[in-house]
Amino acid sequence: MKFDENLAQLDEILRRLEEGKLPLDDALSLSMFEQGVALIRESRKFLNETKQKVTLLTQGGGVDIEFGYF
Question: Which pairs with CB-CB distance under 8 Å and at least 24 residues apart come from 32-36?
């Protein structure tokens, strides 16, 4: 799945969970939460891999890029 799609899906999950219409002990709520955690992990992995690629591409090329924490 693409990064933008992950964010859109995560935003939708968060919106539904924050509405408060789904009780936390509801199986659907737990399933949505688990899906959200998986999307966060996948997105974080993508960002870390992209950061590594940019770092490799800019090393020794006189380009100084400073990254914040993702």
Answer: 35/9, 36/10
Q: Which pTM does this prediction carry?
A: 0.71
**Are the C-beta atoms of residues 21 and 47 closer than 8 Å to each other?**
no
Contact of 11 with 33, CB cutoff 8 Å: no
22, 29 Cβ separation under 8 angstroms: yes
- Quick one: which H or E segment has residue 57? helix 27-58
Count other C-beta atoms under 10 Å from residue 43's C-beta.
19
* Secondary element (H or E) of residue 14: helix 3-18
Integer-rounded Cα radius of gyration of the chain? 17
- Chain segment 8-43, per-residue pLDDT in tens: 999 998 888 888 776 666 767 888 889 999 999 999
